Amino acid sequence: MQPNQYRDARLEKLGKLKALGLDIWPRKAERTHGLAQLAEAYADAEAWPNEKLEALGLTVSVMGRVLTIREMGKSVFAHLTENGEKIQAFFRMNDVAEPGWDVLKLLDMGDFVSVTGPLMRTKTGELSVRVKTVQFLAKALLPLPEKWHGLQDKEQRYRQRYLDLVSNPEVLKTFQTRSRIVSAVRRFMEGQGYLEVETPMMQPIPGGATARPFTTHHNALDMPLYLRIAPELYLKRLIVGGFEKVFEINRNFRNEGLSVRHNPEFTMMEMYEAGSDLRDMMALTEGLLSTVARDIMGAEALPWGDQVISYAAPFRRLTMKDAIAEFGGIERHLLEDDTSIRTLAKAAHIEDADTKITGVLLGDLFEHHAEKQLVQPTFITDYPIELSPLTKTLEGDERFVDRFELFIGGMEIANAYSELNDPVDQMARFQAQMVEREAGNDEAMHLDQDFITSLEHGFPPTGGEGIGIDRLVMLLTNSASIRDVILFPLMRPMKPQEAGESE
Q1: Which of 137, 141, 163, 161 is nearest to 150 (CA)?
Q2: For the domain with range 167-315+376-484, which CATH number is right: 3.40.50.720, 1.10.287.70, 3.30.930.10, 2.60.450.10?
Q3: pLDDT digits over 380-406, tens only?
């Protein structure tokens, strides 16, 4: 049968259910327990054999989606699922109140029902409800995907995540784990004395990162607005205003391409602490990641593909130049000379190696030689100033800044600075970014004069950091693509013929 044939057959059943006088889409479900609640309390067959359950005399009402239906003479067995848990509904012809048995003949996989009856355990040891009454909650007019072609195609799974969650229990578990990870991150930050805040998602001037923004328009004020690429400049204003420790977990938007590690809409946590610096951010990050790994995943050593990553502190520390030398097999002294750096970049086939400035070439060499090799947690420090317009310079060498990026599993997870708090220096760097924009760099930063004004009112020494929540969830759940940890990732529109093929 094709999907439309299934739909027609189910519509016919729907008509028969209505003819029985049933409300197929009631306002409320009869329910005394959630399936997870019952599983936690009574799933252990040794602790709760059938005799003990019957002696308990517990009558329950539970709801769920019908996953399986199996008829055996005058008995019907059905599995209901809710929130990743399952329970068996056991129907016997003489037990089920009218019009219950007629209703069962009209039941399909995918329907939502509520069943009421005593809790029991079958001879095979399966926790079950001996059904006395059944209530329809929703008739599924289309079948679950395995009924006709399955839901194996990844693109289709991302487009119809609701079916992916029903069909693939491990996917539901991943997103339940994601929620727990975010909650654990929030608890940790609050335990460190940080306050959670919210800053604008639409901004008159995009700032805080080098990226191309999404642009929109406010009709009433007749002005352009930008979906934020980072909350950084607003969070820093709060430090100016007197907050000591702040963090925000929310969405950022960057008008960039799609990949297994990039989605234009993604979740970040940014935090800022007055009086701290880069070393404090390192210690905070080590504590955060090791705590979340232990509390949510149950261990500090977790699988990543065919490798194991340890989140136990301390994490390794390498300068950018040391990482290039180590993983690129390059003599360290060659990275101290502009001419040899350009020669190395040409040898690595770096794009525009003849015209790029030295600091940018160092970043390209790092990405080419080292980034994918950094599987175990590693802080990379001492970035060229050209790559970090908002960061304090290193003492004794103003060509480099006090910044780290944390790499795990071959990808960047966090980015932190000893924040630049000199308004004169900050203005000069904004002006340099403006020159970049005029030269055609769409990702260069815009000048935010109000942010400069806030710094001129006094901005104390501050450590700041951003952590990619989606990538962190990828790592902890051993998920290969960012689309596997974002419930509804952005997808290109389907062509008409593709839409027809997927029906």
Answers
A1: 163
A2: 3.30.930.10
A3: 999 999 888 888 999 989 999 999 999
